[in-house]
Input
Amino acid sequence: MSFLDKQVRQIITKAVIGKGKKFTEATHTISPNHSPSSILGCWIINHQYKARKKGDCVEVSGAYDINVWYSFNDNTKTEVVTDKVTYTDSIPLLVKDENCVTDDLEVIARATQQPNCLECSINEAGNRILVDVEREFIVEVIGETKVFVKLDPDGFVEEDDFDFDVLEAELSEVDPDISSSSSSSSKK
Output
């Protein structure tokens, strides 16, 4: 295909030029104020993260709070201990388009599995709490890339050939309340 071919057009557009996914399990050790007798509950809150491209990977850096409700003094008293955990996950880009035309890239990271407690237990020495956590991210890198399109000389539609009556009938069936509520709920 030649650049000078009159039947070919070159289009520069934004597209996903890289994708990756990573599932992570981690164990965190929490030091409570008292030696725990039993674990009464564990939950993870305040998850925040950001992502940036670094080489052939996307680096997701984040933090969350682990709250553990435990009993102590032979199950006669309770307390909640909170520990802020930071992490960095390096997610390799498995799908890559090497034809990106700019260095101005947008990185999108979505937590498909928010940090979640799998198990919370007391260590063998009986003085610390072990929390097993899982999390999963999908990342996408968006950049400008080139697309070549071959023209179809017989495929041009004259303005008179377009059926506006069909379009108007289809649009009259669209409920405007549904589209505005769904678009506002999809914005973050």
Summary: Helices lie at 164-172, 176-186. DSSP finds two helices and seven strands in the chain. Residues 97 and 103 are 13 Å apart (CA to CA).
